[in-house]
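Please fill in the sequence for the structure shown.

STRUCTURE ENCODING:
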């Protein structure tokens, strides 16, 4: 079975308030003595011209951009895998250019998800999983299977698709998330299927797509991680989001990672006004006490 995906998100800018702006902490604090699951914050991809001179220092050569980004953020969603197959050597190189503790997520290939019958995606899933992604080794995080907005929920078809997602390959455990972009997926049957297969439902917020939220799953059910993509950065906010919105998202991430239902968190700032996304991600990291040290690279 296989999966590989990636997607170049829209560069469109202005959006409204965050889906969380104005909400209270809702218990998202970190009480003394309470353990916390890892919270990984990042962006989509690392090759983007508008980040040069703002996020990336002047004079940094393009081939070292991943090396730099992986030392300022704690995760990156690889979107190149959505559009085309990657060579095994590419996965190895990305592993070697990133520090210990850094984790990638992958967008599964569109050839597996952009089809009328998901149950027929088996060969595409198998090719993706066998393409070399396990060469990321301990840098391999969840795989995001993003459905097109035209795909409606069909319980039998979705059950067959989830059944085909492999739980391991080459001795490595594989974790899966599914990003539904049609409102018909706000169905108890969908939540139950995802939980049954240990697949996370991507929380896609601050965008034109429905925000389908199963992050409140009871302890011990469903996936052992939360996968969130927030897409509301704006050009008129230096950090992409207002301080209130950043505070709210940081509190929500902390809430997911603590308590009896604590889960590892992968939170990506995607799309929106993309030039601001690294600033938003680092602002979230700072609020969560995970701001990386200053680094100096020989340019």
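FILLED IN BY: designer on duty
SEQUENCE:
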């Amino acid at each position: 079975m296989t999966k590989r995906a990636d997607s170049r998100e829209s560069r469109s800018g202005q959006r409204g308030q965050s889906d969380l702006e104005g909400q209270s902490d809702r218990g998202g604090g970190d009480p003394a003595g309470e353990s916390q699951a890892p919270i990984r914050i990042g962006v989509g991809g690392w090759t983007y011209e508008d980040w040069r001179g703002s996020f990336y220092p002047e004079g940094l050569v393009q081939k070292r951009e991943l090396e730099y980004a992986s030392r300022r953020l704690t995760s990156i969603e690889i979107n190149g895998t959505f559009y085309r197959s990657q060579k095994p050597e590419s996965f190895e190189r990305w592993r070697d250019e990133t520090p210990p503790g850094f984790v990638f997520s992958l967008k599964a290939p569109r050839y597996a998800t952009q089809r009328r019958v998901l149950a027929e995606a088996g060969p595409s899933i198998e090719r993706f999983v066998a393409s070399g992604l396990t060469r990321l080794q301990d840098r391999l995080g969840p795989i995001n299977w993003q459905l097109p907005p035209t795909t409606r929920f069909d319980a039998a078809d979705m059950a067959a698709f989830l059944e085909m997602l492999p739980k391991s390959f080459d001795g490595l455990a594989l974790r899966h998330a599914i990003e539904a972009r049609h409102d018909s997926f706000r169905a108890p049957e969908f939540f139950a299927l995802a939980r049954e297969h240990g697949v996370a439902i991507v929380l896609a917020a601050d965008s034109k797509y429905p925000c389908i939220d199963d992050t409140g799953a009871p302890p011990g059910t469903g996936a052992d991680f939360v996968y969130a993509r927030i897409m509301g950065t704006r050009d008129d906010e230096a950090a992409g989001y207002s301080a209130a919105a950043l505070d709210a998202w940081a509190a929500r991430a902390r809430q997911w990672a603590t308590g009896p239902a604590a889960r590892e968190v992968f939170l990506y700032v995607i799309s929106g006004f993309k030039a601001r996304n690294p600033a938003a991600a680092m602002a979230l990291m700072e609020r969560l006490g995970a701001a990386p040290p200053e680094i100096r690279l020989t340019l």
